Amino acid sequence: MIGLLKRVSQERGVGSAGDEEIGRDIKKKKKDDDDLTSKIFVSRTKNRFRLPRLRLPSLPPCCHPIRKEASRQKKMIVLLLAMSILVTLSALNHFGEGRDSLDTIPLSSLTSFPESITNKVLTGGGSDKTLYFHPLSSLTSFPESITNKVLTGGGSDKTLYFHTKMKRNNNEHDNDIDNLDNLASLLSKNFYPYGTGSVICILVSNRPKDVEDIQVALKSLAFLQGEQNRDLPLAPVLVFHEGDLTKKQMKSIRDATGRPIAFPTVDLTSFPPGFEPDAPVSNAPPGFEVANRKPWGYYQMIRFWLTTIWDHPAIQRFDVIMRMDSDSCFTEPNAYLPQMLHDHLVYQSQYVGTEPPAGRPYIEGLYEFATSYLEGVHKFPGNAMLWQFIQTTWKEQNTLPLFRTNFELSKLSFMQRTDVKKWHKALTEEEPYGVLSYRWGDAVIRFFDAAIFATDETTLTMKPDGYNHKQKCSWPEVRDALERNKLLP
Fold it and tell me: 398 and 360 in contact (C-beta within 8 Å)?
C-alpha cells in the first residue's frame, strides 16, 4: 500500500516530504484503531462480571434543587441520621427496661423510708423481699408517687434493700437501731443489671463468735480488686441467717463493709417430705454434732449449700456466686475476685487432698450411690480425669478426694442446670436422703459435681490469692494486713 501511495504521489508530483507526512498519518490511524479495539475489549470484559446497576427513578424537575442541596450537605445528613437512630434506640431501651422503676425517676438522693412504705413493700407480691444496705444511689426522700410506682410498676424487681453508711450528710437515723428498717431502698438495675455480676454469700448464726468473725471477714473484702480492675461496682453481700439475728447484730455486721449488704432468711429447721428426723437409719454413721450448734445444724448447712440456695430469690439476679465461711478472710490483694478468673469457668475451689480417716465413716455409700445414679440417668462424666481420680482413690485407698468448700465460686447457670439440680436433689431431697441420713459432706460432693457435670476447661482447682480459713483471720492479723497495704479506712 505504501508503494502504491508513493507511485500516486509521484504521479501527482509530491516529493519526499509529502511521503513522510502520509506515512505519519497512516501510523497514527493504525494506532487509533488499535486503541479503540483495546477499549472495546476491556469494556466488554468488565461488563461481563459487573452486576446490573440499579437506578432510582428520576426525580421530577421540581425536586432538582433539593437533590443538589442534599449532595452538597451529604456529610451533615449522614450525621443527622446516625444521631436520630441512636436517640430512637436509647428511647426504646429506656422504655423497655421498666419505665415505672425507681431507676427512671430523676431523683438525686433518698435517706428516709417511711414505715408505711416499708410495710407495704415487704408484704407485697414480689417473690424477692431481700433487703440490702449500701445501694449506690443516695436517696433522701421517698414521695408517694414513687411508692405507687414501686408497688405497681412494670419492673421485674420490687425488692427493697437496706441502706447503710453511704455519704448521706451524717444522717442521724444511720445509728438508730430502731430505725434500721427505714433505711431500705432498691438495688439499682443500672449498676447491677439482671443476669450479670457477682454476689458474696455467707451463712451465719446468731452466736456472738460467728457475728464477730463475719465482721472481720467483711472488712477483709477490701483486698478484693476484681471490680476495680474490671471497672465494675462493688459486689453485694448476702448474709443468710435463720431470722434470729438481732437488730444490733445486723447493724454491727452491715457497718463492717461499704458494700451493698442484705440479710435474707433461710429455714434450716424443715426437712424434705418423707424424711423422718427421729427415725433410725440403717448403717448410719455416728451422729455428727458441732459444739454449741443445733443437732441438725451441720446437716442443714450442707443441704443449704447443695440445694436450697440455688432456688433462693435473693441470688437470682446475679451471675457468679462467691461463697465464703464467716470465719474466713483475706490478708493479701486478689486481682480478680469476686469475679471468675476466666469468663468460661463455671466452678472454682481448691483441691485439698482426700477425706482423712476420721471423716471416712461419713462418705460410706456415696461412691456406690453416684455410680448407680449415673447408670440410671445414662450420664457419662464430663471430666474424665477427675472421674478417674475418684475411682482410683476409692478403690486403692477407700477414701474420696474433696474440695475446700469454705470458699468456692460458682456460676449460677451451672448450678441451676436441670441435670445438676436433679443430682443435688437426689442427695438431699429424695431417698435415701444421703446428706441427712449419712452426713455426706459438700466438700466431697462438690468434687463429684466437677467430675460429672463440668469439664477440665471449665473448672479451676487452685487456692485464691490471699484467702485464709480460721488461721490468720483474727482481727489483729487482718488489721495489720490492711494497714500494710494501706487499705484500712
Answer: yes
pLDDT digits (tens, 9 = 90+) for 255-287: 898 898 989 999 999 999 999 988 877 666 666
Identify the burial level of 199 via C-beta atoms within 10 angstroms of its C-beta, where 0-12 means exposed, 13-18 middle and 19 or more buried.
Answer: buried
Ramachandran class of 166: left when φ > 0, alpha when ψ lies in -120 to 50, beta otherwise: beta
User: CA 37, CA 26: separation in Å to the nearest integer?
Assistant: 17
Tell how strand 198-203 and strand 320-324 pair up: parallel
Which stretches within 333-441 are classed as H helix? 366-377, 384-397, 412-415, 418-428, 434-438
- As a dihedral over the C-alpha atoms of residue 187, residue 192, residue 196, residue 198, rounded to 10 degrees, the angle is -70
Per-residue CA distances from 264 to 141, 159, 213, 320, 411 (Å):
25, 11, 19, 18, 20
What pLDDT is stored for residue 176 in this prediction? 62
User: Do residues 256 and 238 lie in contact, with contact meaning Cβ atoms separated by under 8 Å?
Assistant: no
Residue 331 has pLDDT above 50, yes or no: yes
Query: How does the average pLDDT of the chain come out, rounded?
Result: 78
Please give the pLDDT value at position 31: 67
Nearest to 351 by CA among 401, 279, 392: 401
pLDDT (average), residues 15-41: 61
Count CA atoms within 13 Å of residue 482 on its CB side.
Answer: 21
Residues 159 and 174: their CA atoms lie apart, in Å, by: 21
Average pLDDT for 154-166? 50
**Distance from the Cα of residue 179 to its chain's centroid:** 33
Q: What is the pLDDT of residues 353-385, one digit of tens each?
A: 999 999 999 999 999 999 999 999 999 999 999
What is the rounded distance in angstroms from the CA atom of residue 65 to the CA atom of residue 35? 40
| 83-92, 196-205, 272-281, 325-334: least confident range | 83-92
Length of the chain as a residue count? 489
Angle, vertex CA 245, rays to CA 240 and CA 246, nearest 5: 150
DSSP β-bridge partners for residue 90: none
Give dist(CA 303, CA 21) in Å, integer: 110
Q: What share of the chain is helix, strand, coil (3-state, %, to 5)?
A: 45, 10, 40
CB 133 within 8 A of CB 218: no
Question: Could you write out the three-class secondary structure of 70-109?
Answer: HHHCHHHHHHHHHHHHHHHHHHHHHHHCCCCCHHHCCCCC
pTM beyond 0.70: the answer is no
Q: pLDDT band at 123, cuts 50/70/90? A: very low
Rounded-to-integer distance, Cα 244 and Cα 111, Å:
26
Which grid coordinates belong to 448?
A: 463429684
Grid cell, residue 352, equals: 485439698
What is the dihedral angle through the alpha carbons of 18, 19, 20, 23, rounded to the nearest 10 degrees? 120
Q: Compute φ and ψ for 448, nearest 5 degrees.
A: -65, -40
Asked if 128 contacts 314 with a C-beta cutoff of 8 angstroms, the reply is: yes
